[in-house]
What we know:
By secondary structure, this protein is an alpha/beta fold. It has a domain at about 110-220: Diaminopimelate Epimerase, Chain A, domain 1.
Amino acid sequence: xxxxxxxxxxxxxxxxxxxxxxxxxxxxxxxxxxxxxxxxxxxxxxxxxxxxxxxxxxxxxxxxxxxxxxxxxxxxxxxxxxxxxxxxxxxxxxxxxxxxxxxxxxxxxxxxxxxxxxxxxxxxxxxxxxxxxxxxxxxxxxxxxxxxxxxxxxxxxxxxxxxxxxxxxxxxxxxxxxxxxxxxxxxxxxxxxxxxxxxxxxxxxxxxxxxxxxxxxxxxxxxxxxxxxxxxxxxxxxxxxxxxxxxxxxxxxxxxxxxxxxxxxxxxxxxxxxxxxxxxxxxxxxxxxxxxxxxxxxxxxxxxxxxxxxxxxxxxxxxxxxxxxxxxxxxxxxxxxxxxxxxxxxxxxxxxxxxxxxxxxxxxxxxxxxxxxxxxxxxxxxxxxxxxxxxxxxxxxxxxxxxxxxxxxxxxxxxxxxxxxxxxxxxxxxxxxxxxxxxxxxxxxxxxxxxxxxxxxxxxxxxxxxxxxxxxxxxxxxxxxxxxxxxxxxxxxxxxxxxxxxxxxxxxxxxxxxxxxxxxxxxxxxxxxxxxxxxxxxxxxxxxxxxxxxxxxxxxxx
Length: 558
C-alpha cells in the first residue's frame, strides 16, 4: 500500500482544506457550508471529547467547538442543523460486511426467525408462489438452533418448490440447504463425495439431505446464475439506503471482484453514499497486487488493497477448528477450509506486495495457526505497519490472548454474535472454553486493537444493536439478563470507539475518519438519544435521526 493509506500523507488537494481548518479560528467571518449546533457532540477524540457544535466546509470538518463559537461561523449560504439536544458522533464504520449480498438479501426470502420446520417450509412455499418456474430461491439465513438443532432436509420443501431450485444458506453462510430441483440442475449424484474443507451431509441411510457445508457448497452454488450488472447496481442502492438509515458511513466489504466492479460503477457516476474498503479473496493475491501496482489503492470513497482468507468454518456448522473435539461431537474438531500450506503461501505473497491480510478464524486452533503465520511473516520480512486482521476471533485459547497486541494484529469482531451464539455455544464447546469466547474485555485489557462490525448479512447491520450486545451480552433468548460471560462486557465509550476510531485504524483511514476533529472527513451521525445516558438495556432502542457523509445528508428520519 502507498503512504497515503498508511496515514503518512494526504493527497495535495487536501492542503487547502486542512489549512482552512487550522486557520478558521482567526477569520473574521469564516464561511462554512454546514453547521450542527445545539446538542451533545461526542467527538471520539482524546484531545477534545465533547463539544456542542460542528462546522463543515467542502465535506471536511473545519471546527468542533462550543455552540456559540460555531454559530459565529454561519454565513448567508450556510446550512444550519439544529440538534435540539440530540447526540452527534462520528459515523459508524463497519469493519466486516458482505455488503452487496446484503443488498440482495433485503428482497430475498427471510428464514432468520423461522422457529420450526413447518414455519421454515411455509415461508419458502409462500415465497415461491410469486416466482416464475425456474427462478432460483436464494437468501434464507436460517438457524436450525431455533427449532432445537436438527438440520433441515430437502424433503421439507420439495413438495412446495417443485419448479424452483432452492439454495438457502444458514445465517453464518457455512451451510446451505438445496432442494431436489437444485441438485438435479447441479448434477449432484447420490454418490457424490465430500470435498476437502467441506461436507455433503447424509442421513442415517446414506441419502443426501440437501445440506452442504463450507467447501461443499460450490457443488450447487456454482450453478446459480450470476446477477446482471443492473441487478448488482440495484442491490447496492438498497444496501446503501439501509446502511444510511442505521448511521453506517463506511464499510469494509469482504466481497468479490464483481462486487468491486459494482462499487467502481457507482463511484464513477458519483452515486456512492458511503465509504467502501473493498476486500477481494486472498486466493486472488496476484491479481490484486498487479492491480494496486498499476492503478493505486483508490481514494477516500473507494479503496482496495485488502485480501480476505479463511482458516476454518463456523461454530454453528460444526466446522470451526478447535484444539479439542466439540463437547457434543466427540469425533469432530472442525476443519481447515483452506489447506494450511496454501494459506501460508498466499499470506507470504500478500506480504511481499505490501497488501493487508484479513483472515477468518473462529476456533482456538484456527486462531493459533493464523497468529503463527502472521508471526512468521514478521520474522521473515521484518517490521512494517501491516495491521494484519483476524476476522471474528471468536474462541480464544488463553496462551494466544496476549499475542494480538504483541504482533499488532487487529481482532475484527462482531458483538451481535455473542448474544446470538451465546444461546447454545456452551452446549457445543463447554463452559471452560466459553470463558474466552467473544472475549472483548480480555483482548482490550491486553492492549489489542478490537474493531467492531456486523458480518451483515450473517447478523443485522445495525451498530446500535451491536453496541447493546457488547455492553450487555444479554442473549437473544432472554436467559442471561446479567450477560453471558459477563466479565467480557465493555462500557459504552469503549464500544463506540471500536465502531469508530479503532475501526478506522483497522482500515488504514485513521487520519481521515473515526473522530470528529478539524481536517477529518465530515462523516457524522445524529442519534435520538445520548447512548452514554440511557440504561444499557435500552441501547438497542436508540434511533438514528440523521446521517451525513462527506458533509452531505444521506438519511433523515424526520
